Every structure is written in structure tokens, then in C-alpha cells.
Amino acid sequence: MPDVPTSTPLPAADLAGLFRALDPPPFALVRRAAPDGTTTGPFDVFVGTMDTVRRVTDLPSGPALPGGGPHTLALLPYRCLTERGLDCHDDGTPLRVLRIRRRHTAGHAALTAALAAVRPPGDLLGEGAGFDGSDEDYTDLVRDLVAHEVARTGLHVLIRRDFTARLPGHGPAVAGELFRRLLAAEHGAYWTFAVYTGGPHGAALAGASPQGHVTLRNSRVVMRPMCGTLRLPPGGRPNPADLVAFLRDGKESEELGAVVDAELAMLCRISEGDVRLEGPRLRPLARVLHTECRISATAALPARHTLAGSLFAATAVGRPFADACRVIARREPTGRGYYGGLIALLGHDDAGNEELDTAVLIRTFEVSGQGRLKLSVGATVGPRSVAADETAETRAKAAALVSVLASGGPTPEDGAVSHGRAGRGPGGPEAAGGPATGEEGRVPGDRTRHHQAAGRQPTPPADPAWCPSVTAELDRRRARLSAYWQRPRRPGGRPAPRPPVLLVDTAGEETAPLAAMLRGLGRTVEVRSAHPAAAAPGTVAPGTTVVLGPGPGDPLARGDDRVAALRAMASALLSSGAPTFGVGLGFHLLLAELGLAGAARARDGAAGQREIEVFGRRATVGYGGTHTVLAGPHTDTLARRLSLTLWYGPAHGELVATRGSRTGGVAFLPASVLSVEGAELLDLLLP
Q1: Measuring CA to CA, which residue among 174, 171, 149 is closest to residue 159?
Q2: For 275-326, how does the pLDDT look when each residue is reduced to its tens digit (9 = 90+)?
Q3: What are φ and ψ of residue 610, in 5° steps?
Q4: What is 174-224 written as a DSSP string?
Q5: Backbone angles phi, psi at 473, to 5 degrees
Q6: pTM for this predicted structure
Q7: Neighbour tally for 54: CB within 10 Å
Q8: Rounded to an integer, what distance in angstroms lies between the CA atom of residue 655 and that of residue 678?
Q9: ∠ at Cα 343 (340, 345), nearest 5°?
Q10: How distant, in Å, are the alpha carbons of 34, 292, 606 from that of 610?
Q11: Which of the four pLDDT bands, split at 50, 70 and 90, describes residue 535?
């Protein structure tokens, strides 16, 4: 196969030659969803050289090819989180880079003919297949996690377990066969792929990921947070009543909002404004349906730095993100390998501008050079989790993909049916999907064996959005998301400048979106870390409003050095007379220093949406953080002496806002996508 600067069709004979080579070069087979979401047409074949780099920012940046196109495919392991200073097991999994030397396209018929010529094993499920660790062990782990970390902080965290097997054969033909079966099993994946590292004993990754993560195209950065799962009935077409009930589920709606908030925080760190929120929309796959939002902003960084700043998708980790990383590092005994990481394609458009596309490494087989297969699956554990249900979910997820390994793989019809009951399933896009298994949740050793022939591509389920009741429900869901982030910015439409803001970062993920919103409201914003000297009164320029930002922590905790330092900062700012306001934890710190806080109580969830009375209006707002603050017996009297107005929430004694001429704050998060009127309320709060 000669080197070519542009993509050319690859005959079946050449593809078969790639699969049967004694010393095959590294290659990748990739079918990506088009911008309109369709996944029909040929797939890409990339052939090149494979090496490793130390960091994401070491990925190659070019050069641009004539006519544009990708130059690098990268496999980012979960351990790359160490580059962001986040906790994880550094298991040494390599950050692999396929430097693309030849680019081709091929169709399903060519793939089928090529594999028929090399005859890979029909049954890929070898002996000794099963989970590492028993169901009882996983159930106990989840139960203990709910009783401790989750009960204390309200976080949601995805905890994995591994299904392993030894393949009866492996090599480039097996990688191609896994790719073929995954194409037949899942028509709606964002990426379907197989990557082979080269040589007679190369390693491989093969998967059908439903979720894209970060894309860079036309000078816009796009992220696609996804959450919520509806299992589809036989035939793949959901009942409109079931779909409406799914969309009305408040828990599902809040969880999607929390995931969008987590990725909005990433987006605001790697972009330079003009943030836009679209959705939620429906993403049907072969046997499940998800809800998905699209958030975008003006690009500010090169592709590799955009990638480095967006590690990783919240749906594969949890939220609050940093807390979930710490829990995963404590609770999972080994490193994750590539699970939860990214597969990324870097290149240029025909004008020479950088492009980037990525998919989350879930629903993915990892195959070692010795033929050891690993499939990681996980359940998202949260305040409402039932341990036995989460264990059953992991078995169902594994079963959905294990049938790909069985003799012949799934039939086209298997990709569009579910043998379980239709209804809402737990978890996000790392939820049960792919081919049906005949009996939900059965995996080896209770092995369900399939002897079916694969052939043509499955037919996608009909688009369920045709139903007026579904359309109306999606419109209602959109109306309960932030009006500010959904409103497109127009040139010349920025508000008049307002007094500058010093935003103190108290280690909250929400700091970056809050800064972006303040800038959009006409403020010049400087962000400083919450070091005691950073916001000392002498460092605040005259005419500047100080905003203590959101973050985790109990504002009344004794013996917590971090909280003590933050309270000392708040006290010094109030004593100086500098206009000082707070959001989330920052608000709670001010209440404590003003003597208005009676008690702090752990929140029963990491995020939520509520309707409250505040600033003389009824508003729908989103919450985060780990604690809420209650008034004491003399709070109202003291507030009157300080000329402060208080607002209370629905819970008895809960303080949600206060406002005066030089201080005030709100317990909710104005920049959350769950705060419908957040921008207006933030504008009313600040002088």
C-alpha cells in the first residue's frame, strides 16, 4: 500500500493482507458519527507507526496535510489525570500515538470479504472468563461507599469492575473481527473502532463508544455531556408514554444537569467565551436511548492543550469531579488502564486549521499482546443507590458486550432489540447497551452461548422525537435550564462595563463558569486562589468587588485548616469594608463570620434544582457544594442590626440568600445550568 496524501478506497484484498501479515504495521479501523449524528457510509483505515509520549501536551501537532485530514490517532489512558494533579493509580498504561502514514476508506462488504479470506476464530470467548471478584464483594463495596463517602458528601462516583477472559486466538485479524461485530451490534455509537499496535503479538483496543467528549472544529470547542438511560423494547422504538415519563423524571434531569455543569467547568477553562448550551436532545442507540446536551465555546488553545485541559468525561468518573477521583483512587484496587480515558484523532481542515475529535473509552475491549482480554464496566454510585441493583447493572453491561465475543457475534436484529423490559435504566452512557444477550445480566460462568451469523448493518430505531408529547417534554426540559447559557451572544450585544470583580477560587469546579458569566455581564474579572494573602484587604484595588467563590467543605468545621484559613480571609475582608459577596461556600463563610450561621448540615445530594423566593421573585436555581447552613435563634435580629435582608428556603431554617449594600451572597450556583435565572440573580446581588 503506497503512501498517499489523501484518503483512498482500500480493496478487500489489501485489507485482508493487513490482517494476515506476519509482521503487520500498526493500524486503526474507525467509523465516526458525522456532524449530523449519522453513522452510515465507509469507515477509515489508518496505517502508520506506533510510539508513546509522556504527556498529552507532547502529542504531535502536525504538519497539516494537503487537503486536510488527520495525522495522529492517540489512546489516552485514565492515568493521564495525574497531569491535572488529580488522584489516580498510575499503572503505567502507555499514552499510545499512531502517526498516520496512509489513510484509506473501506466499506462493510470489503471488511466482510477480507475477514472471510483470513478466517479469524468464530468463538472469541475463551476459557476462564468472568469477573475479577465476586458479586458479593462488589455489593459490599457499594454498600460501604454509600454509607460513608456518599452519605457524607452526596457525591456520585462511577466504580468499576473488570470482566476478563483469554482469547483462543489473537492478532490483527481478531482486531478486525471485533470491529466487524461491534459495527453489527451498535449502529448508534459515536465512534466504533479497533486499534492494533503492530507486530505478530500486538495489543489491541476495540470498542463502540456512545459518547463523544471534546471536539475542535471551525474555531469552536464542543463537548457532549450525556446522562440517563432508557432501555428500548423489542424493535427499538420506545413507547411515547414511557419516553415522556423518562424525560419527566426529576432525578434523571438533575443528574444530566450535574454532568453538564462538570463539563461546562472544563469548557470554560479551555475556551475564551461565547459559551452556548443546546439540548437536551435524544440519542437513540441499538437497544438504549440517552439524553445528551451540547455545549460549545470559542477555542482558545491548540488541539493538544484543549485535550489536556478536558481530561476526562464526568460521566466516566463522577461529580464533584476531583472528589470522585479521590474516591476512585481509594476504592478501586488497581489502575483503570484505558477505561474512562479517550481515543482522539488530531488533524487539520483543508484551510490548515487544527481539528480534534474524541470518544470516551467505555464499552471497550482491551486485549494484551498475550491475548488477555479485559472489559471494564461500572455503576454510578450516588445517594439513591441500592447496592444489589448497582451490582446487577454491572453484570447487565458486561453481558451486553460479551455476546460480541460469542460464536459469530450478534445478528443484525440483535443490535436493535432488548430482551428485558422497557423502562428507565440506572446510570449514564456507560449503561447497558450494545447487543442483546437473550437473558439480561448473564455472563460467564453462567455462560449464555450464541451461535448466530452476522451480516448486514442493523436498522436504526425510528427517531422518537416525532411525537408531539415528546417534543413538548423536551421543550419543557430546555426551559428548565439556564436561559443565559442558551442565549446566543451577538457582536455588539455585550452589556456596559460594570465594577471589576476579584473572584476568590475556593477550590470549586464552578469557579470557571462563574468567572465566564461575570465577564458576560460586563465585569472585568481577576481570579485568585484562596491563599490567605491572595485576597488580603491591601491587595484589593479600590472600587473592586470581592466574590468568594463556591467550593466543597463545612464552613463551621473545627480543626479544618483549609476552612479556618478561608474564614480568616472572609473576616479580614469584612473588617476592611471592601464590598465582599459570596456564592455557595463563599456565602456560607460570610454567614459564619457575620454571626448569622446557626448550624451546618451535609447536603443529601451533590446537585439539585429547586424553586425558591429570592430578591423579590420566584426563581428556579441549581445547588452544589457539600453543605447547607441553617439560621440560629438570633439570626433575624442580628441581620436587622447589620441592615441585611435574608431569604429562606423551603427547608426549615435554611438560609438561601442575604443582601446588603456592601455584603451578601447566595447559597445556590448562579452559573449552574440548573439555575434558570442565574445571570439575572447574580446581577441583582452585586453592586
Answers
A1: 149
A2: 999 999 998 877 778 899 999 999 999 999 999 999 999 999 998 888 899 9
A3: -145, 160
A4: HHHHHHHHHHHH-TT-SEEEEEE--STT--EEEEEE--B-EEEETTEEEE-
A5: -70, -40
A6: 0.88
A7: 9
A8: 17
A9: 155
A10: 37, 22, 13
A11: low
